[in-house]
Structure prediction request, 377 residues.
Amino acid sequence: MDARLLIVGGGPVGLALALMLARGRVASEVLDARTLSAATADRRLLALSRGTLELLSPLVNLPAVATPIRRVVVTSAGEFGRVVLGPEDMPGPLGLTLRYGDLLAPLAAACEASPFVRVRRPCRVTAVSQRPADVTVQLDDGNELLARLLVHAEGTAHAEGVPEQVAVVTDLVVDGPAEGEAFERFTREGPLALLPAGATAAAGRNMALVWCMPAVAAERRLRLDDAGFVAELQQALGVRNGRILRTRPRTSYPLHQQVRDTVCEHRVVWIGNAAQTLHPVAGQGLNLGMRDAAQLAHEIARTVAAGADPSIALADYQRKRRIDRAAILGLTQRAPGLFATRAAPVAAGRVLALGLLNAVPDLRRQFARLLMFGVRL
Prediction:
């Protein structure tokens, strides 16, 4: 198979891009540093928006273990006002949650079945060089590949040094939330998200926690026993949103936010986490990456169908992704800081904004559509 295009990174965004290109009869080769078994063993919980589900539905059938998100409750700790996004704003599920490995497995199987996609695992890229008519990629096994276009979809390496913020993650059993209910709770330390995660427990509901906080606070909370951790989490969450019954082992990961100003350089393009590594607030990272993949596949397929060099597509891709990227980057970069500050004028503005957003249906629906679909041109 003559691979017109190389994709570095065999995660959900990279594999989805390969399948989207295949629908346009464009061949691609995916290079991933992990084995498939290592990749599918990843049990992180992902939140897929309605827009992402619409992009994936022509490509794969998602497994039955996916859990619908039917309602999202947004609050600010210690303050009045809440925003509730639900069926009144968008009929049907707002999205769903799925473990990383459970999403990757059907995408990998679909790539395996496609005559337009080849996947190499494990395969690490050691060097990339561009010439006027092509891109040369050096692999760790000494092989060299040639392509007309290279897509970086692997994600950026973590920055050096101690991060200011860390996300503490774990699975919980919580009493009180309705079926399919999710929470975004802003605290002065950082945002806290609770997501529905699978079948209902014997008592309460299985939920996944992503709690963002300063690195020092994360280190301390990782050392707490379960009872101590639950007590502090319950205080941050508030009793109105649910009562935490049990917690499972905790882990953490640093929150390094990195954004490329320019996502295209001649025959090389960056998408998803390789183009922007976002704060996890509102769960926008994967969903923004899927929209990157969809737009890039559309532009490349259109250009190739016209018999033109696929690198010509990159200028239109960058231009058409600018507004959506800017809007989501602005939201994820600014929201944690605005909700973390204790300044009285800002706090008053938070309360007013939440109340207004919840009280005005048109505003609430526009906000929901931004979270679900991004900015559509």
